[in-house]
Design goal:
The structure is a homotetramer. With about 375 residues, chain A is α/β, with parallel strands linked by helices. The first copy, chain A, folds into two domains: about 120 residues, Rossmann fold (3-Layer(aba) Sandwich); about 210 residues, Dihydrodipicolinate Reductase, domain 2, CATH 3.30.360. In chain A, about 35% of the residues lie in helices and about 25% in strands. Chain A is built from twelve helices and 15 strands. Chain A has a nine-stranded mixed beta sheet with strand order 14-13-12-11-7-10-9-8-15. In chain A, strands 3-2-1-4-5-6 form a six-stranded parallel beta sheet, with helices on both faces. In chain A, a hairpin with a 4-residue loop joins strand 9 and strand 10. In chain A, helix 1 packs across helix 11, helix 5 runs antiparallel to helix 12 and helix 9 packs across helix 12. The longest helix of chain A has 20 residues. The two termini of chain A are about 35 Å apart. Chains C and D meet through strand 7, strand 8, strand 9 and strand 10 of C and strand 7, strand 8, strand 9 and strand 10 of D.
């Protein structure tokens, strides 16, 4: 960074109050490097919870609605520079719109919106405002993922031939949504709040984003077979897809929330004509790399990574594990830098997931669901 | 075994002479337990190679053609009990037919035949003779695979929901078939010798067989996208498939001969409503097993396996690695026991891959190729 | 916690300015949960560096000496609640003494002091003041380490028979201390600043602490063979030790800074009469556990851990890796809770490494060096 | 090999009858390559067992005593070329002596003899006869071990600084020797049959041999702490040792038969000034290798190994696991080749463990036990 922040940025949050672990995750990640501080929130639709959650976090300002917050913060002399949106999916777009219109930068959880149409509207709105938008595809913040992307970009893998990506969990293998106290399972399996997909929407989008982020290529069409294995459930809890990429590479994407024993197993393998690589989110500091005809190498964060973004995203010497918080913090770091550049009249640099990736994710969801309803016919992502 | 062999069985081999590593593999595996001895061979279509190869192995009898061998051995007072066929694919059926007609039991390399029609003819022929036939789906001989099968069979996994199988190699990532001295690559990529598929035929069939062997279920239909990545090649060197099983389980099968860095990476994961398991051929003595809500367990050959077939197929105490030879030897052991039972007037027990699995394999090849030519439409395996 | 903080605690730091990564580590870890904020520092003995470092971190108050800082903060109406000491070893005790005398709580990097005598003096001083002291044995903060400790404590392992601990790095395998710009290597290999040991002092103490923390037992005597492999170096860069524990368990401790290819490989294995367990710092969210006669189990942070401290120290759902920062933050969390208890007139709970562990570490260093000079005779740790 | 065998070698075995798994292991390994056949045996001291065991294996000649066998086979026109000794330790030397005197080559299980004195006598006897002797340090037959040895020999590791070797099992963690039907546990824990050590004698010798085989160096002295953890047992069931090598390298050797959960965990790590490597017997086809400043590489049998002995000892393409049988078969292969050279008047080549390694092993046992009785003082291996 050529210039530095002269004060910590001020952040607000919508959603994420007590009981929603994702709020604490974003608070920790956004404040981790000491470049920003959470100072305002509309942390819950329940006023008592909102107030109490804000007090727990020592927030100076607490609001009971995001609409009120957007207006008030925009008018406040020390108002927030950016808002973090951690609500259920169906609220993403309206919250984002309110803050965009108020001129406040936005970090939003994925998926971007309730459906593709809403996402496109948001894209339209954003194009009319000088506001930055980031999307929490947190996995792209790992240094080893940056290194993978850099290797592909500089041609070390040659022509990409095959991409295998998977994202498996098991937390919905029982009908948790039938327990009244499981809010998380409740809204994620509810079409009114989650949209047209549960599994693909929640984690399939992460997997697809990772493919496109590392390869720099786009998924051109999918042939998808979505399933609902747990009785009584409306939305998909599992999906298998064939992928075709614009460059001619082929592959599979498989995701599941009912894969017994799996925690949060996001894994990608990319095979090129000159080399291949493999990365797993659960051991994020290792990148397996194999140049043709040579042994597999174990590239390690803090030790053997050499791309600028990988180095910039590493805070500790090798062998000191960095994890999910630091990955998300890396995305925040770039987002904050862009805010700083914008505020000082310089052009933003990007390099973190934003509106484009958000729209791509919604297109993936739409294409996968459409393909599946057509008995796994190929459907283009346009 | 209630009764025991009173002499070692006598074996012959067709194909497998010098330069074809698969011949030595079958010799070692079939003789490993001291229950059989290779005594005759038509080891090469090149007479000099055939003679020299037989001499290297100290074989009493060497032939220049399999037809001659079948007739002569059937007439010999100490003729062979069984023949091992290790020729390229296009010869499997004619060699097998010759020996079946001569009343000699047959162990054949997979795939069973050149195409599905030929396989069905062979099945028809076999039904008319009192001859046993085994197919070298060698991976089903590993004790950990037996244990996996037993766990599914006794319901430990509950309802199978998802099956992921993959078989990745990289040995054809360069156009080796253009080198005149690479016979192996030459015939495998030659439609006149390999049939309508290279990758699916050679290793996709192993993967599909493993799915059906462990689950006891059948693949009902496939949606396949076959690719040929190496320029100048006619047949597929990579494939991705969606699977549907008769029971309602879903899954993917992906195989490749151009996956840079992969050696012989056959791996299967099965997710059920009660538990899941995972096995990899390259670490064959470990079976990962996870009952719902409990930790992953590492079941180990010689230590924690408990099913009868797993125990019967284990020759060493835990921690003494057993590998590919011993796996194939386990299939031979059951095949030899059936020969003994047959020779002593008792009913054969089966329990090793045979004609049925061979026909299933050819059906898989046919369905995958058909599906791919129809732009990955679902095709039934009947 | 029965009562909660009503404001974030105020922290100061001595040492840790620009170029010393350990300062940023402590800042991030101590602030991670939003319960404390760094507000003052004497970050470097170089006044310009001290000032600039404080500005980078937006610290309200910067000092040029720790003595000045101790006095000023004690007198300040919003003075710091606790100080973090991240200087080289030879300054630990004098800095700590200054703040103890000023009535300010202390978190100190390990080893506690320059030598055992100094450590004992500090222990004496501390006993005369109502000040809390914590020591940054950061590895004990991992949830999986807590789980291990709990398993031993509740008898799941039976009688402990064998303990194998190792801590291997390679960062000193070349004579980095001969490069003038490597301050870290410079002071760690300098007897005037590091004390009588480099490798044992820096990382052997961590390994020994981990043994005693998990087992709840004490190392009674060591038989140590220290080595200096890199020419021109005075202090040890490698050590191998036999261990005897008070309970009768035996074991080895091996540590190295010249073990080519090793990053920060702290690993412990504990074998009991009923079960055993294994943990590695580089994959900190997994705890391997094996009850006698059963398979190895993979216990995972956020999934299968059940001890209260392990659960309390977990911030994310399973499969979202937590690492070094979060481990150290767990120690801070307990330390801060004790500060809060003390400030509200309640008794402190402990549960984090402190003066006792610091003195034990110095005793280990002294015993190991003495043993080695006596050609690896047994030396008691008293 | 410049010349080839004109017939399979004829082998005999002493010990190894029914119930002793080690007999079948040697039969399979020695016959694996089709270069030798077991034709005679004195398989048990129990005549009925001896006869039945020989019949099970279709052996033409069965004896009731090894003395009778040695004499008869020496006189037989088609007498055995070599004998395999698989008895308990206390018989090794007398059996070996009988066959040496009869001019028959000997493959003996380790340890070589009951004690060091007996080993030295045997060495003296052997020097007076033109008989070859091999010792079953089976682990040195793995291709990855050969590769490791070759890397050290050609200087790729630079100066060896640190060697860590361990061999852990748990099969004696309960007092199995008190069960009358456990012959194996019975004689191994019986000083009258096993000698002065159980654990060090049985597996510590393997570990020490592996160190010396790979490094080409010798262990000059040990500082050993032997333990007997299971009540009622006389001999050691666990040991920890500090090692010093003649070259100046240091290290540890730890072995156990009571390490809960361990199967047959032989593992070695060697750290040099230029590179390091690691190998584990339970995953024998992988060799981890790390040149200084570069990533860890995964060298794999059949793929990346390049030393002549590693290549010669590999029977399968990469990814087809080879295991314990093939490792032992590699030692037999070299031993048989030497027999062939000797029989055709050519000088033997060696390259497999023999009398020298056997004496070294007995010296290690003697030194370790002596050191331990002197409270872990350094004892030289001469």
């Amino acid at each position: 960074m050529t210039t530095q922040l002269t004060r910590p940025l001020r952040l607000g949050m919508v959603g994420g109050g007590r009981g929603a672990f994702i709020g604490a995750v974003h608070k920790i990640a956004s404040e981790l490097d000491g470049k920003a501080q959470l100072v305002a929130g509309a942390l819950s639709s329940d006023p008592a919870v909102a107030t109490q959650s804000a007090a727990n976090w020592f927030l100076p300002r607490s609001y009971h609605s995001f609409q009120e917050m957007a207006v008030a913060e925009a008018a406040h002399p020390e108002g927030i520079d950016a808002v973090i949106i951690t609500t259920p999916n169906h609220l993403h777009a309206s919250v984002a719109s309110a803050f965009i219109k108020a001129g406040i930068h936005v970090m939003c959880e994925k998926p971007l919106a309730f459906d593709l149409a809403e996402a496109l509207e948001l894209q339209q709105l954003l194009s009319q405002h000088s506001v930055l938008m980031a999307l929490a595809h947190s996995y792209t913040g790992y240094p080893a993922v940056e290194e993978a992307k850099a290797k592909v970009a500089c041609g070390e893998l040659g022509v990409i031939r095959k991409v295998l990506v998977e994202y498996h969990q098991d937390w919905l293998m029982q009908p948790l949504e039938q327990q009244s106290d499981n809010k998380q399972a409740g809204w994620r399996t509810d079409p009114a709040k989650a949209g047209i997909s549960c599994c693909v929407g929640d984690i399939g989008t992460h997997a697809a984003n990772l493919v496109e982020y590392i390869t720099g290529d786009t998924i051109s069409e999918v042939c998808a077979d979505l399933s609902t294995f747990v009785p009584g459930r409306t939305l998909d809890d599992d999906a298998n897809m064939l992928l075709r990429l614009s460059s001619g590479a082929k592959g599979t994407l498989t995701c599941s929330q009912i894969a017994c024993g799996e925690e949060n197993n996001l894994r990608i393998r990319i095979y090129g004509s000159k080399a291949s690589l493999e990365w797993q989110q659960q051991e994020p500091n290792s990148l397996r790399y194999c140049p043709a005809g040579q042994p597999w190498q174990l590239l390690r964060t803090g030790v053997n990574l050499s791309s600028p973004l990988a180095l910039a995203g590493t805070r500790l010497p090798g062998g000191h594990p960095e994890g999910y918080f630091e990955s998300l913090a890396n995305i925040y770091r770039r987002f904050f830098h862009d805010i700083h550049l914008t505020q000082t009249g310089q052009p933003a640099l990007g390099g973190y997931p934003g509106i484009t990736e958000g729209v791509r994710g919604m297109a993936l969801i739409a294409a996968a669901v459409t393909s599946s309803t057509k008995n796994a016919s190929w459907v283009s992502l346009k």
